[in-house]
Write a structure and sequence with these properties.
The complex is a heterodimer of chains A (about 500) and B (about 290).
Chain A lengths: L31 H11 L3 H18 L2 E3 L9 E3 L2 E9 H26 L3 H4 L5 H5 L21 E8 L5 E7 L6 H14 L3 H4 L8 H11 L10 E4 L8 H11 L2 E3 L4 E4 L2 E6 L2 E5 L1 E4 L3 H4 L15 H6 L4 E3 L10 H4 L2 H9 L6 E2 L3 E2 L3 H9 L4 E5 L9 E2 L5 H13 L4 E5 L5 E6 L4 E16 L2 E4 L4 E5 L13 E9 L2
Parallel strand pairs in A: 3-22, 5-13, 6-7, 6-11, 11-12
Antiparallel strand pairs in A: 1-2, 4-5, 4-19, 8-9, 9-10, 14-17, 15-16, 15-17, 18-19, 19-20, 19-21, 21-22
Helix pairs in contact in A: 2-6, 3-13
Chain B lengths: L1 E13 L3 E8 L9 E11 L3 E6 L5 E6 L6 E12 L12 H9 L1 H6 L27 H15 L1 E2 L10 H7 L1 E2 L1 H14 L4 E8 L12 E8 L3 E6 L4 E2 L4 E7 L8 E7 L3 E11 L8
Helix pairs in contact in B: 3-5
Classes of the chains: A alpha+beta (about 500), B alpha+beta (about 290).
Chain lengths: ~500, ~290
């Protein structure tokens, strides 16, 4: 038992058997990487801690770092994203593996997307089934036979990682369209520095503040050929979008214009921005609008968010869209299961980061295993999202299991199965109880890739499920976040 | 060589003034080895800023940014096109087994998948029988059989024209226009895993031809040994010198003659006319 449990903030803290706690080892000893930090925290009384907590919250509110959820409050009331002051720490050595794994994944994704839209070798060699790709809603016909500048499709990717009970990191999903959340990483760090300025002198924490400048470097690196001093803009759907704060924050910190679709127009396959000085040619558009809304002449005809004619300008090579259209085909749930194969196929390397093991019922051996181990698995339909049609084996009755077997056998190719994954726990301050308790966390990482630029944001967004026992970390469903420290001792 | 003069005239009416209108016309004859575009002009009323661009399949489109406050917008296109004669029966067919092996090969299917996959326009209803490709039947013969089947399956009825109609819709009352004939043919061929595409163009009116008063639609099928071959199920004919192609795509959606973004409080409507006549200046000395 560590003396820390004498502290009022930690006295009732209990690790959970069979689950991985980031801060405490099984014998209730603090893990070495956390010992100095927890030492500083435990010296605080609950009242002192609350005061600091309030101070940090005010910092968010005064900066206007809020978000609106669509479903829970239809009036769009803005709330601050709950922030926990105790940072999550990842040792540099451990982080370097994640970092290399992310770069590897980003490289493989770009090669995969270029192949899919050009030679299609991956399909001809039957690495991925043809029907799987062509049934994806995100496949973009406009990308056929086209190579974007710098051969880059996924300039910005956000990949979600979890740490399972075995202490290993697993990739849960990739977000290759418009991943968001990076502004919270920067805001969290800012709040931490204001609240605990002394701590940053004591710990050698890797900086995250270079993100906007590297992002601008990436945007400029993929500008159309022959442009010396590219004009970059950030295209937002507008103030009603839940991530509008992030859009304005990123535009401001990169020093580029924040525009809406109505501020841009296309003439002669070039894109222009209306300014008070007249039209100005735009070379790179960091768009935070989904493919479907980008160009009403090509995709959804009634979209008022996009820019009519922009896709032809893009194909002509007169403007670069970031991320490229049609990347969604690679972050599809069914395609996810093939990413280890994709990495081996294009890079001839073993994947550095693990996927959650997935059984594809379309393959007879996997099917056999799934049918025999249904009580330990989660079964998901490949073509649905939003949690529909999911079967969880853990508490299912014998009857339910038999019914599920029938459902799978009816059309095995429609299903995948995965073991039930636990998210690791992290000490988190619970306001109602004035003390720290274990809560589940995950990690969203941010990777940037341009012409000769590769970058992984040191740390990322650690998301916390604030409800006891809950595994849902989404901000729209009561999730919060933590600053994430990569430290080198 | 046969020369045609094509006149296209569209009028858009706007109930309320718009604050932005951006239109895209896909109406130009495609230059190709058997279709030479000799002369091409277009003009609009009122005058507006225009530029040529390409659509998803690389076909030429005209984009028009309309002056604000217009109540009507007219576009006229005039083209003079020379067509070389085509004899659709004149090609070296592969052996039947060779044709099948080619169409069934995995690599071929990967390359042509966009034209093998049903779309919401071409999807066939379940529980009905459609012609199926027999093992001893040449692809060409099968396509002719499907062409005749579709021709007999639907009645041409211009009152049923709607850009939203799918095969499922038109099979309810068996009435439709050229786009519906084309979609049904695509649906049947794709069910048999034969690559095929939707084609739009102008049709020089022959005796009893349907669809020549408007922009016509037909199909192209991949016939091993011959490549993309045109079939017109509306008239149960093969594509010949009377067919002047504009564009192809997976279905109507990729071949829409007019697309546009009009930001206005009121409604808008479009009328158009097409005239195709044989030029009197034909048989010029070579």
């Amino acid at each position: 038992m560590d003396p820390i449990f004498d502290s009022a903030l930690f006295q009732n803290y209990a690790t959970r058997p069979g689950q991985f706690d980031e801060v405490f080892a099984r014998n209730n000893h603090i893990k070495p990487v956390y010992s100095d930090l927890i030492g500083s925290f435990s010296a605080l009384s609950p009242a002192e801690y609350r005061q600091l907590n309030e101070y940090a919250k005010r910092s968010f509110l005064s900066q206007g770092i809020t978000f609106a959820t669509y479903n829970q409050n239809p009036r769009g009331i803005e709330r601050i994203f709950p922030f926990d002051l105790l940072p999550r720490i990842i040792h540099k050595q451990e982080w370097e593996v994640i970092e290399r794994g992310m770069i590897q994944r980003a490289q493989a994704m770009d090669l995969f997307l270029h192949d899919l839209y050009n030679d299609k070798k991956v399909l001809k060699d039957k690495i991925i089934p043809l029907e799987l790709i062509h049934s994806s809603h995100h496949l973009c016909r406009f990308m056929e036979g086209f190579t974007p500048p710098g051969n880059t499709y996924c300039h910005i990717s956000g990949t979600d990682l979890i740490r399972h009970a075995d202490g290993e990191y697993y990739i849960l999903e990739d977000n290759l369209r418009c991943p968001s959340g990076v502004s919270y990483v920067l805001a969290n760090r800012d709040a931490m520095k204001k609240t605990f300025s002394q701590l940053f002198k004591q710990f050698n924490v890797a900086s995250v503040m270079d993100y906007p400048s590297v992002l601008l470097e990436v945007l400029q690196s993929v500008c159309p050929a022959g442009v010396d001093d590219p004009v970059c803009v950030l295209l937002t759907p507008g103030v009603y979008n839940s991530a509008y704060y992030e859009h304005s924050f990123l535009a401001q910190s990169m020093g580029v214009e924040l525009v809406e679709g109505r501020d841009l127009y296309v003439d002669n396959d070039f894109v222009y921005m209306n300014t008070v000085y007249g039209p100005e040619k735009v070379d790179v558009v960091y768009r935070r609008i989904d493919d479907d809304f980008m160009d009403p002449l090509v995709f959804l005809a009634d979209s008022v968010l996009g820019v009519p004619g922009i896709m032809s300008a893009y194909r002509k090579g007169n403007v670069t869209l970031v991320n490229a259209p049609g990347t969604g085909v690679a972050d599809d749930k069914a395609v996810y299961t093939y990413i280890p194969e994709i990495i081996r196929y294009y890079l001839d390397q073993e994947p550095l980061l693990k996927n959650v093991p997935t059984y594809r019922c379309r393959e007879p051996e996997h099917l056999q295993y799934v049918l025999e181990h249904l009580s330990e698995l989660v079964v998901k339909p490949v073509d649905q999202s939003g949690g529909y049609g999911i079967f969880i084996g853990q508490n299912a009755s014998r009857e339910e299991i038999e019914k599920e077997k029938e459902r799978i056998l009816g059309s095995p190719r429609e299903y995948i199965a995965q073991p039930i994954m636990a998210l690791s726990l992290h000490a988190t301050f619970i306001e109602q109880k004035n003390q720290f308790e274990p809560r589940h966390i995950d990690l969203r990482t941010f990777t940037l890739k341009g012409r000769d630029v590769q970058y992984v944001l040191s740390g990322g967004l650690s998301r916390v499920a604030l409800k006891e026992g809950s595994l849902i970390v989404n901000s729209s469903q009561g999730g919060g976040s933590k600053d994430t420290w990569i430290i080198n001792d | 060589m046969t020369e045609y003069v094509i006149d296209y005239h569209a009028i858009n009416h706007y109930e309320q003034p718009f604050y932005e209108a951006f239109l895209e016309f896909l109406i130009f004859p495609q230059p190709s080895s058997d279709q030479q575009v000799i002369h091409l002009t277009h003009e609009s009323e009122p005058w507006c800023s225009t530029y040529f661009s390409s659509n998803v399949n690389g076909f030429r489109v005209l984009r028009c940014r309309l002056p604000a406050q217009s109540e009507t917008f007219e576009l006229r296109m005039k083209a003079r096109v020379a067509k070389s004669p085509i004899n659709p029966f004149e090609y070296q067919p592969l052996e039947i087994a060779g044709e099948r092996a080619m169409l069934r090969s995995h690599e071929f299917q990967v390359e042509h998948f966009a034209f093998l996959q049903q779309t919401h326009f071409t999807l066939l209803p379940e529980g009905r029988t459609f012609p199926s490709w027999k093992p001893d039947e040449p692809v060409f013969d099968f396509c002719q059989r499907v062409n005749a089947f579709v021709f007999n399956c639907l009645d041409y009825d211009a009152r049923h024209a709607s850009v939203h109609n799918t095969v499922l819709d038109v099979l309810n009352d068996h009435k439709g226009v050229c786009q519906d004939f084309a979609h049904l043919m695509l649906g049947i061929l794709r069910l048999n895993m034969i690559p095929c595409r939707y084609v739009t163009g102008y049709l020089h009116p022959g005796p009893g031809h349907k669809g020549s008063a408007a922009i016509h639609a037909w199909t192209e099928v991949y016939v091993p040994g011959n490549g993309w071959t045109g079939f017109d199920p509306t008239n149960n004919l093969m594509e010949d010198v009377h067919y002047i192609k504009i564009a192809h795509g997976v279905d109507l959606d990729e071949c829409q003659t007019l697309r546009g973004v009009v930001r206005s409080a009121g409604r808008n409507s479009t009328e158009y006319e097409v005239h195709v006549r044989e030029s009197e200046m034909q048989n010029l000395p070579q």
